[in-house]
Amino acid sequence: MNAKYWKISYVMLFFLLTTLVVASDLPSDPSATSNPWKVNVTLESQIYLPTPRPIPDVFFELNNSTPDMVYRAELGQAKDAMNLEKEAYATTNATLRDTYKITQNPLGPFPKGEDLGFNLEQWIAANGKGTYVEENGNAALKLTLHNLVPNGTYTLWCSRVTMPPNYREVLTPIGAPDGSQNAFMADARGNGTFDLIFKALPASTNVTWKDYVAMYVTKQVPISTNITWTLIALVYHSDGKSHGATPGDSGKTAHCQLVHLMYPKPIQTFEEWKNATNITAAAQTEKKEPGFQGIFALACLLASACILMNRRR
């Protein structure tokens, strides 16, 4: 076989291997530059959370001996048919939320304010479903809601709730920090929709169900983790106004109706969280030094080809 033939063969082999090496350096899916985290959102009353909480911002006459005072309702009371027919009221002044019932009288009584125009059954019948998709630091939230207050003014919030002993709740608007993107109105039938792309919500604390139960339910071990939950919260405004960067006066004109609890990433549901033995961060796309592996392989191939060609001369 003559030298010219060998040169042509090695050139063809070189280009074939070059193509294979470069192809191996590319991602299998060119569009897969990140791993989206998709959550199926279910908005419902706080009394339906895995660990039920009192209805925070609407109040009811649950004690006939104090007609001018109203109370927060809990899950057990919401199962009573007579209570379901009770009219909902605001309070005369802003009323501090007490999710974990750590104050002296977390359920009331409170001075009775305005009649809100609906009863307990109608209030807790509201619900919403949708998706939250997080990718590259941004998130898309799409919701469809039903059984809201007809023609009611609503806003959506990121609620960050830190558990006792360092309890606090911080509400920030979904979307723009000034609250210019988080409001909508329900239609005459109490239906509503929401669709927005915004900066991703902060994650809930990375804690397993087992550790959570041991610290906060059975209390078999001391609290060693400061747990903060992220929730998507829907607030109804009985004054018909949104209030920008803050919801307004809780209990008086601002009434949290629905929430969705965001579990530690990448967990999506309560059952998944309950069954997980550990929680790891969502997988990230492998990062490669651009072209390094390909360049190294090409250099080796080129050197091999030169050596073989010299031997054939």
Keywords:
about 325 residues; alpha+beta; five-stranded antiparallel beta sheet; four-stranded antiparallel beta sheet; 7 helices; 12 strands
Question: How would you characterize this protein structure?
Answer:
- The protein has 313 residues and is α+β, with helices and mostly antiparallel strands.
- The chain has one domain (39-275).
- Helices cover 23% and strands 28% of the residues.
- It contains seven helices and twelve strands.
- It has helices spanning 3-25, 75-78, 81-84, 120-124, 209-217, 270-275, 292-312; strands at residues 37-43, 69-70, 87-91, 110-119, 127-135, 138-146, 153-162, 168-173, 183-185, 192-199, 228-237, 254-262.
- The strands form three sheets. Strands 7, 8, 9, 11 and 12 form a five-stranded antiparallel β-sheet that branches.
- The chain is globular and about 55 Å long.
- It starts with a helix and ends with a helix.
Summed up:
Helices cover 23% and strands 28% of the residues.
Secondary-structure blueprint of this entry?
Layout: H1 3-25, E1 37-43, E2 69-70, H2 75-78, H3 81-84, E3 87-91, E4 110-119, H4 120-124, E5 127-135, E6 138-146, E7 153-162, E8 168-173, E9 183-185, E10 192-199, H5 209-217, E11 228-237, E12 254-262, H6 270-275, H7 292-312
Antiparallel strand pairs: 1-5, 2-4, 3-4, 5-6, 6-10, 7-8, 7-9, 7-11, 11-12
Helix pairs in contact: 1-7
Q: Helical proportion? A: 10-25%
Task: Write down the oligomeric state.
Answer: single chain
Main pleated sheet: 5 strands, antiparallel
Termini Cα gap = 11 Å
Count the helices. How many? Answer: 7
> What proportion of the residues form beta strands (DSSP E)?
25-35%
Mean pLDDT: 84
